[in-house]
Amino acid sequence: MNGRPARIGSWRTLRLGDHSLRLYPRGWVVAASLAALALLLAVAELLAGRSALGVQQVALALLGQEGGVAERIVLDIRLPRALVALFAGAALGVSGAVFQSVSRNVLGSPDIIGFTLGAATGAIAQIVLFGHGGVPVSLAAVGGGLLTAALVYLLSLKDGASGGYRLVLVGVGVGAILDALNGLMQVKGNLDNAVMANLWRAGSLDARTWGHALPLVAGVVLALPCVLLLGRRLQLLEMGDDLAMQLGIGVERTRLAAVACGVLLAALATAAAGPIAFVALAAPQLAARLCGGGRLPLLAAAAMAACLLLLADLGAQALPWRLNLPIGRMTGIVGGAYLIWLLGRGRRG
């Protein structure tokens, strides 16, 4: 049996006897290129900072052969920060692609729908009421995100189905309520904890430790394969519930599983870095434009979001006059402009 690739549009079908495998070379090339760029930016994160370190010093510190202050800076400060930026970006990118696919709407992002705010509510409640800590805040964020997702899903149900504009609109309303609740908790909480919660709420990669990085890395490594297994079904859901059901897809079961995975990823990213605006909104669309094919590529979206978050952090560190702009505020400024452009482009279309 000889494999013979037959080109169909931008796809390639590899036929092996009675079987066939659909390949999308452009998507894999784009995803691999973006992943390589993200790794280069992560290396740049290790070199960036007020203490000037050379490439050789960083390499020796990673190998445990440098010793002294340089090794502590690299292993205890810069490496956790780079890992949080890399994996939080990837989590947000995949989460955004999942929700845009489920809602069949470019605005179907966890920060627009309100799931990120739900995760933030859980984390802020933990910080204000019980104090700050990497693992407890992560668990509280995941719990808050899942509860918010369940509420939004139940409120958006109509005739036993959810999704589309109902999911987006209900999520926006629930998110507005949660945003007000977050502000109220900060006002009424202990002053020190409220200040810590306010700093966390701005979204920042400063002072990230292994307590922030390890739960995030473990969660992404476990959740990402589950989302990839749902990838084909999500593509069919984008064509409409009726067609997906005719093709044998359990629509609501698939949607629930995808929402659970998307919320988990968004909550893990929020717990580690605070609320990061618009990365989950922009990354899947930018990746889709690079890949073509009219579909949301999950791996390319993950790599694109990691690049965006790393670029934003490197840009924040390079600001003049030692300005300390939280990364969540920087992505909010840039992402807000992107959202205005996206809505304007949709109106012209």
Automatic annotation (TrEMBL):
GO terms for biological process: siderophore-iron import into cell. GO terms for molecular function: transmembrane transporter activity. Pfam families: FecCD (PF01032). It comes from the Bacteria. Gene3D superfamilies: ABC transporter involved in vitamin B12 uptake, BtuC. Its main location: membrane. It is a multi-pass membrane protein. It is found in: Cell membrane. SUPFAM superfamilies: ABC transporter involved in vitamin B12 uptake, BtuC. The chain crosses the membrane at residues 28-48, 82-100, 112-130, 137-157, 163-181, 213-236, 256-284, 296-315, 327-344. Keywords: Cell membrane, Membrane, Transmembrane, Transmembrane helix, Transport. This is ABC transporter permease. It comes from Stenotrophomonas daejeonensis. The lineage of its organism: Bacteria, Pseudomonadati, Pseudomonadota, Gammaproteobacteria, Lysobacterales.
